[in-house]
Amino acid sequence: DAGVTQSPTHLIKTRGQQVTLRCSPKSGHDTVSWYQQALGQGPQFIFQYYEEEERQRGNFPDRFSGHQFPNYSSELNVNALWLGDSALYLCASSAGNDQPQHFGDGTRLSIL
Amino acid sequence: SQELEQSPQSLIVQEGKNLTINCTSSKTLYGLYWYKQKYGEGLIFLMMLQKGGEEKSHEKITAKLDEKKQQSSLHITASQPSHAGIYLCGADISSGGSNYKLTFGKGTLLTVNP
Predict the structure, then answer these.
(1) Are B40 and A88 a contacting pair at CB < 8 A?
(2) Inter-chain CB proximity A40 and B106 less than 8 Å
(3) Cβ-contact B100, A55 below 8 angstroms
(4) Which residues contact A29 (CB under 8 A, 6 or more apart)?
(5) pLDDT of A35-59, one tens digit each?
(6) Which of A87, A98, A106, B39 is the most buried (most CB within 10 A)?
């Protein structure tokens, strides 16, 4: 039973570029959340997708957008990258509101 | 100030010793989750606590939720080098129990010396 899988594992971009990160949820999970984790900090909630719609959003600018597909997989898009976007981006999936979120290994994004 | 405060920030213990990590919320806790993270990797789910007074154990790790104090503790008995890592508490403190959005503490870095 595969857990949450994310791709790519590492990514290097330059300022101003755009990036797309991908996430496949754990089997049986229909809800996907994205988090940003800066070095030495806890994860910060970006947004959550359920039934292909953004259900809740954290305090992140519109440069951060996402999508959920009919097979429950999800993408995180970030436009106009700047140095402060360098972080570990984590995807988490869950099977319902009363179930824990399970995390993938993350995508390490570095902005030069 | 941080909505979820973890203490201590870091901890170094000798193998075999017991230890406790605390997580205190400035807001009402609707659910409290403990995760473990190896540096630069994903979070591994440990335990979920949803009711005041609830206590759960898995192997040598026990977590308790004190709803009145808006606090949770994670206790490790007879620590082993495999327990080393970053322990994070996450909680639903703004979604009213929906578990939509988890807020995390900054984590506690645990080192276990053999």
Answers:
(1) yes
(2) yes
(3) yes
(4) A4, A72, A93, A94, A95, A102
(5) 999 999 999 999 999 999 999 999 9
(6) A106
